Amino acid sequence: MSRISTIRVRAIAISSVVLAALGGMAVAADRYTLQVPNGLAFSDFRGYEDWQVVSIAQTDEVLKVIVANPAMIAAYKAGVPGNGRKFPDGSKIAKIQWTQKKSAEAPFSVNVPDTLKNVFLIEKDSKRFPDSSGWGYALFNYSAASDTFAPDGSGTNCGYACHTAVAAKDYIFHPYQKR
């Protein structure tokens, strides 16, 4: 084989390795390929960015927007959980959390979202999650440096202990706010 042919073969081989590695990184960076142990997957919440707002909240550390899928919004509008009924299977809620900063543009003091911190997902499926009163939980932390998400927690019951404080509200903290 000639020297030029050898160089071409090596260049193609190196290019193939680099493309394969970059392709793998692109797949790994896709949040919809992620899931927590016991199977609650980010892909189960595809389109959450367009769901209707349920509520907003603020802690000392983060600003939160809580959104829900159409099945859960319909249940809220029907009076759940205040009417004593539970959310139906298929209800899903997403809590999107950002670090906060003071607005540099507003002529008054107001906190606004800064960097995305994580997305906390909750799904009602009584058959899949019987040990956590029908709810599955998943927390996906966001890394701004790599623009990727990573699952956090030990499985689909990672939020259950906290949510038992609102068992009477079918384990959901935020009511549907009047509009």
Briefly characterize the structure.
The protein has 179 residues and is of the alpha+beta class.
Oligomer: single chain
**First-residue to last-residue Cα separation:** 75 Å
Under the CATH scheme, the architecture of the largest domain is 3-Layer(bba) Sandwich
Mean pLDDT: 85
Number of strands: 6
Main sheet characteristics: 6 strands, antiparallel
Helix content: 10-25%
CATH topology of the largest domain, anyone? Chalcone isomerase
Q: Class of the largest domain in CATH?
A: Alpha Beta
Shape: globular
Describe the structure.
- It is a single chain.
- The protein is of the alpha+beta class and 179 residues long.
- The chain folds into 2 domains: 1-33; 36-169, 3-Layer(bba) Sandwich (Chalcone isomerase).
- 22% of the residues lie in helices and 30% in strands.
- The chain contains 3 helices and 6 strands; from the N terminus they run H-E-E-H-E-E-E-E-H.
- The chain has helices spanning 3-29, 70-77, 160-163; strands at residues 52-58, 62-68, 92-102, 111-124, 135-143, 148-152.
- A 6-stranded antiparallel β-sheet has the order 1-2-3-4-5-6.
- Strand 3 (92-102) and strand 4 (111-124) form a beta hairpin.
- Residues 5-28 have low confidence and may be disordered.
